[in-house]
Amino acid sequence: MILVRRRTGGLPAGPARVGRASSADLSRGDRILRWVSGIAATVPFAGLAVIVVIMVIWAIPAVIYSGTTFFTSTKFFIGNLYAPTLTVSNGISAPHGAIYGALTFIIGTLSSSLIALALAVPISVGGVLMLSEWIPRRLEGPLSTFLELLAGIPSVVFGFWGLTVLGPLLAQHVFPTLARLGVVLPFLKGPWAFNGQGLLTASLVLTLMIIPIIASTTRELVKRVPVLAREGALALGMTRYEMVRVVIIPYVRTGIIASALLGWGRALGETIAVLLIIGMANNPPANAYGTTSTLASGIANQLDAALSDFTGMAVRAIAELGLFLLVISLLTNLAGRLVISRVSGDALPVGRGI
Amino acid sequence: MQLAGANVATKEEVSAGVTVEGLTVKFRGTPLIEGISTFFEPNKVTAIVGPTGCGKTTLLRSINRMHDHVTGMQVSGSVVVEGVNVYGPDVNVREVRRRVGMLFQRPNPFPRSIAENVGLAPRAHGLANRSTVREVVRENLEMVGLWDAVSNRLHGSPFGLSGGQQQLLCLARTLALSPDVILLDEPTSALDPDTTDHIESLMKTLSEHMTVLIVTHNLAQASRISDNVLFLMKGGVVEATSARTFFHDPADERSRAYVSGRIG
Fold first, then answer.
1. Which residues are CB-contacts of A56 (< 8 A; sequence separation ≥ 6)?
2. Residues contacting residue A109 through CB under 8 Å, at least 6 positions apart
3. Which of A97, A272, B65, B202 would suit a FRET pair with B196, their CA atoms being 20 to 30 Å apart?
4. Cα-atom radius of gyration of chain B, to the nearest Å?
């Protein structure tokens, strides 16, 4: 076997090489390492490529069948499986009356993830600045560990807790207060489900789930602010608050945007916690508390029914939902990483106006 | 007292210098400087010299209470600036730092615009308002000779400036608070010879209106610019005298050895 072939002796021809070795002067261990690491390095790329290609192939018939309906219809209905006739659209047939609109899921995904993001960013940044600037050093360690432990809680536990504890609590004690704001913001008027299931509860649980992502990145960035820069502000008699505003925020601003994008990616794709809490309704939310579905929870929820579709179109429609979710998750992740790599240089943003 | 900016040329009052009494600074119990007592004359440039690790910077940072922010630092003794013991009870640290400016070893402009670098601190201290801040920015940038180079990019990033220009910007930022004392911690060690010359001549001008203390490793620089010299070794004062005496006829044998380059 090629992996274990022995070198047959003799000195390698030509001058000694520096840098990447050619196969002629490799020992057996080197060869094994090269093969194993080569395979290891290929797997992630290959995995991603295979997943994308398979999703595209699976989704194509659904893309043709739905056309723009995918983006314009809030109705996702796998059709009447017992009807004697099929519905044909663009030359593709599906069970009678089947319509695969993703708008409900898109609205649910965007609204839940954006509410979560809007709450998680200020909480994370405020919390990290509190930890680094005001909390005594000896408390900083345990508190940050606690923050990072939050990231380790399985999402099904979050979902269960949201369903059994947080939802009922909110429905009884928080939503009635929020509803008073309904005078100004009509979407807060209500009604809501008795157990709190719906968009807002799901968004709050998502908030808790993405705080560790945003907070841990922000913490690293705040730590990287040079001591000399901090001291420059303090030596001018600035207070901690002024130092944070004048020095630290400008240093970490871009990084916060990047980590927010990463957190957003997580919120977009979160499945089981959202599925348990958001109410699994197949319609856009009626108000801020309304039940609905996201792309991820919708896929998980519909898949079982879709498998019973004898034409196979429902599964393909779900593949199209999955492909769309995959693309937007990849884009937010890429954007986040791009911004992070830009911050790693010394390009610093500059504020305006005194 | 004049409030707006550092128009030092018209500042009437004379600084009364800095008196240090029995100053000891320990880091986690280990003394860095011990029992230092000395007087820094007003309107003079005093160079603090000595071998590496002798406590020059530690002494300098005691004067504007920069040790407050380092865990494990304990300061005892007193530092009197303008009749106020900065380690006394009820002392407003913010005001101490307004009156005692500091320039660091390497330039550390804020990640804000050039104008904001100079104008933010006077605004924070209430020394300038929205309408007068432009004038403060201009005066201080002119004072350090940076105005012509940056007047057309006041809202641009300071990180586009050369190292020397950044250090001048930091000096303008410090002067904008009209300090009575200015602390310079090897301010030219990272700079080119031209900017070094420029900053050295600025120190002379500044000393007409404030107490200037400079920590330097560069004995040639100390002899060029200082009126007085404080020579430290192993955390204690060896000799405090005029620059003339220190460089030509020092009293202590160790000073003679240091000046002639035998130690250091």
1. A323
2. A268, A294, A295, A296, A325
3. B65
4. 18
What pTM was estimated for this model as a whole?
Answer: 0.78
Between chains, do A242 and B124 touch, taking CB under 8 Å as contact?
Answer: yes
Task: Burial-class residue B216 by CB neighbours within 10 Å (0-12, 13-18, 19+).
Answer: buried
Torsion B49-B50-B51-B52 (CA) sign: negative
Enumerate the residues of chain B whose CB falls inside 8 A of the CB of residue A236: 97-98, 101, 121, 124, 173-174, 177
Segments in chain A below pLDDT 70: 1-24, 343-354
Q: Convert the pLDDT of each residue in B239-252 to its tens digit.
A: 999 999 999 999 99
**What residue segments make up the domains of chain B, in order of their start?**
15-259
CA–CA gap between residue A317 and residue A322 (Å, rounded): 9
Instruction: Give me the helix-helix angle, B114-124 and B133-143, nearest 10°.
Output: 120
Residue A233 lies in a domain: yes
Using CA atoms, how far residue B166 sits from A322, B124, B126, B157, in Å, is: 52, 21, 25, 10
Domain-embedded: residue A90 = no
Within chain B, where are the H helices? 56-63, 93-99, 114-124, 133-143, 147-150, 163-175, 193-207, 219-225, 243-248, 253-259
Burial class (CB in 10 A: 0-12, 13-18, 19+), A139: exposed
Total domain count for chain A? 1
Structure tokens at B75: 């300061």
| Domain span including residue A165 | 103-298+333-344
Q: How far apart are CA B264 and CA B162, in angstroms?
A: 31
Tell me: ipTM over 0.90: no
In angstroms, the CA B144 to CA B199 distance is 8
Which amino acid does the sequence have at A320?
E
Question: Residue A50 falls within a domain, yes or no?
Answer: no
CA distance A229 to chain B (A): 5
A76 falls within a domain: no
| Closest CA relative to residue A189, chosen from A200, A178, A198, A197 | A178
User: Does the beta carbon of A349 lie under 8 angstroms from any beta carbon of chain B?
Assistant: yes
The residue assigned the tokens 């739905």 is: A66
User: Is residue A228 a contact partner of residue B57, using CB atoms and an 8 Å limit?
Assistant: no
Residue carrying structure tokens 């001048």? B168
* B94, B97, B112 ranked by CB distance to A246: nearest: B112
Among candidate residues B32, B13, B5, B57, the one with its CA nearest the CA of residue B214: B57
Q: Which residues on A lie below 8 Å from B113 (Cβ)?
A: 350-352
Chain A residue closest in CA terms to B155: A352
- The CATH number of whichever domain residue A257 belongs to comes to 1.10.3720.10
pLDDT tens digits, A313-336: 999 999 999 999 999 999 988 888
> Quick check: B180 and B80 in contact, CB under 8 A?
no
